[in-house]
């Protein structure tokens, strides 16, 4: 049989409080200061939330999403012109599964990496620059892996792969062949792939054109179930730069 009654007790932090006591099988048990218990529970929840956030951010870093874009979403990307609106619409089509490939071309600071990071967060994908892609292949050699084995193990395990800064420098034949393999396998395995570049197509380029950097096999794959968007606009990063 259990009997409950109220006793006044004292907490050095919060003063007197009513403590609910109970006798269970002849043994008296009481609950401590309710404010202390509430503060303890609140701190435990805050610590848990912080640990979860740190785990999320570590996962972002491991998948190539930089801290600048931890909060990037498709919803908080604000287009400033028609071409940026088209880029957002392409990302939304990929998010909904209506397309599987995007070639996103544009000047610096127009939001390309924001959109790519938002897609990678949404689809648990991997983002890397072309330089990182090349470094990944070279690191595979040290582990005695072929380019194909490295791509299979490190990239094709993700539902989405994005290669940023494509065409920043001339690629070697090995890198071009590896990229063609990655695009082909994403195509045949129904995975999402995004290529991002600052070099425009021959229709818009004033000098060099992106077609000079992309293998024919990749161009062929991007003719199917894909969207190509050329984005122009102001450099948002430059707009936030302050001169002292």
Task: Give the topology, please.
Elements lengths: L1 E10 L3 E10 L2 E4 L3 H29 L19 H14 L5 E6 L5 H12 L2 E4 H13 L4 H8 L5 E7 L6 H16 L3 E6 L18 H6 L4 E6 L4 H4 L5
Top keywords for this entry?
244 residues; alpha/beta; five-stranded parallel β-sheet; 8 strands
Describe this structure in words.
The protein is α/β, with parallel strands linked by helices and 244 residues long. Helix content is 42%, strand content 22%. A five-stranded parallel sheet has the order 5-6-7-4-8, with helices on both faces. The chain has a three-stranded antiparallel sheet with strand order 1-2-3, with no helix packed on it. Strand 6, helix 6 and strand 7 form a beta-alpha-beta unit. Helix 2 runs parallel beside helix 3 and helix 4 packs across helix 5. It starts with a strand and ends in a 5-residue tail after the last helix.
Task: Summarize this structure briefly.
With 244 residues, the chain is α/β, with parallel strands linked by helices. It is built from 8 helices and 8 strands.
Report strand order across the widest sheet: 5-6-7-4-8
Please identify the structural class as seen in this structure. Answer: alpha/beta
> Mean of residue pLDDT?
86
Major sheet size, sense and barrel closure: 5 strands, parallel
Strand content: 15-25%
Q: Based on Cα principal axes, name the global outline.
A: elongated
The share of residues in helices is 40-55%
The first-to-last residue Cα distance is 77 Å
Number of helices: 8
Please provide the count of β strands. 8
